[in-house]
Q: What sequence folds into this?
């Protein structure tokens, strides 16, 4: 039997937020439900400012080049080469 590794990235706020309280899968396609789309964008705002993220997803050039961008790049390289 061959075993492998699975890597995934997940973003959450320091208080553990990954979805609005009471969020249900039945409402995942309704961005107005508990304002989950707005809350998700607030949580993810920082990542869209990072140079590696922007260039890797081809959403634009430039962006911040600090430690956050460097960590994203190193994580991507580690998980994409496995």
A:
């Amino acid at each position: 039997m061959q075993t492998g590794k699975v890597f995934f990235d997940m973003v959450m706020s320091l208080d553990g937020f990954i979805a609005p309280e009471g969020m249900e899968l039945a409402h995942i396609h309704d961005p107005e439900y508990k304002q989950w789309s707005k809350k998700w964008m607030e949580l993810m705002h920082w990542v869209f400012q990072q140079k590696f993220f922007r260039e890797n997803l081809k959403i634009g050039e430039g962006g911040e080049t600090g430690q956050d961008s460097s960590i994203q790049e190193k994580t991507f390289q580690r998980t994409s080469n496995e």
